Please model this.
Amino acid sequence: MRAACWEDKHKVEIYDVPDPAIVNPHDAVIKVTNTTICGSDLHLYDGVVPSMEKGDILGHEPVGEVVAVGPEVKNHRVGERVVVSSIIGCGRCFYCRNEEYSLCDNSNPNSWMQEKLYTYGTAGIFGYSHLFGGYPGAQAEYLRVPYADVNAFAIPDGISDEQAVCIADAFPTGFMGADLCGLKGGETVVVWGAGPVGQLAMKSAWLLGAQRVIAVDNVPHRLDMAHEVNCAETLDFTETGVTDALREMTAGRGPDCCIDACGMEAHGTNILVGAYDALKQAAKLETDRGHVVRQMIESCRKGGTVVIMGVYAMFMDKFPLGAAFNKGLTFRMGQMHGPKYIPRLFDYTLHGDVDPSFCITNRFLLDEIPLAYEVFKNKSDNCVKVLIKVA
Amino acid sequence: MADRRGYNVCSRRSITIHRDPGELYSAWHDPGRLICFLSGAKGVDILDNRRSIWNVDVPGIGPECWEAEITDDKTDGAISWQTIGDTGFEHEGSVRFDPAPNDLGTEVKMEIRSRFPGGPFGNAIAKLIGRSPEDYISKTLHNFKQLMETGEVATGKGPSGREGIPENEETAGGES
Model:
């Protein structure tokens, strides 16, 4: 089959590789029809996530058709159209039973490696480095899906492939960001990053009862989408001091909830701090640029909630713990719990509350993926999210 | 410091498994399942109810073959063993099964005392690269938990674009 393989920093190539097969009894294999490039794939593309190996197949947002099932798969049959969660849960461990699938005890065969970094191992993720299991990814013609009854979902009639592909990872990540805010109704929610996850976090904040939604970014077409599609007020961080602006927009109260939809490669405007972070990241002394997290802590109201959905890998410096402590902030974060949210997001989509495919702006074929990575990384051609048409 | 048997490294890890102690104890007496979850195990021959022959790729040491003898066996509670005769991985080990609180299943505690190349210093270096007896125990316990909770040992095996490696059998130090 053809597959997009990570070769090195900023180098992804299409290779002919062997087809995947059923390995374990709970596996299924799907013929991928549609996939995407996620913002977190750019962290791999940029070489800031450890434990990538030359030849690893990338991608974790698959929609496809089941072509084989293992003997223990009960809920799926050959020919079924499915979307697969990016995060792999086993469905049986303590965490999966608590619907905290991204903390799964069993799905990551390399959790013993992760323990050296995080003390406890977390779930496997498709195409997301060997620390997260070394699973081949979804930017390929076929994909092996472990624990298929837990991680693959039959797509209801009425939901298109383009809508479903956003429900593999981007929509549940954005939705979990809003969910972790614990909204009771009437809150002001600020979302840093107006990429696909940020856009879907804005949409989700409205769904869950926010009274105001504010988007922070510096890319004009992404801020335009936030405003026009998601009815968000917008702040361009290159034009205004974000913390001061948010304080004034809320008449001195500060926003109730702040969501980071950027992650460890966020850009800022403070040249000295930005250079400090970039230099340390390049020298591997700090893997995670902390600009957005610092700004959220400064900006959030006393007693407010800071939610991190953008991906961080290892360490960041200059964490303003004093402000966080004395303001009594609540921190919530983590990789999204896909199987918990996917059925609910099907419902929102079927009922017309959200069409998550609104964030797809650019379409490529699998063979064009090296170009797609460049377009997505550079946000050129008004790109917000790319769709990769595989079959 | 080496003890009276010359063992210079004592390694232990524990894990909680959502299964009853008796079920887990039985799995340790089932050669078919042992071969699935013991890290690096290539083969096991049961000679009688106390003695067995093992072929294992031991991290930090390499492929080894040894005869093991069960030295203590408490039904549903604990199993202890030791190697007999010459082997590159001379050791004694034990695994205990204790009920966990709050219906969480069973606390499984595994310990290995071994003669490891370089003693504590060699062990410290081996730990850094994931090749120590502690890593061996950790992988074994994770595999055991996966098998007993889900019915299979998780694996990332599958295709990759690595030239000359059609199956992704070697991952970044990982046992996928």
Remarks:
- Chain A is about 30% helix and 20% strand.
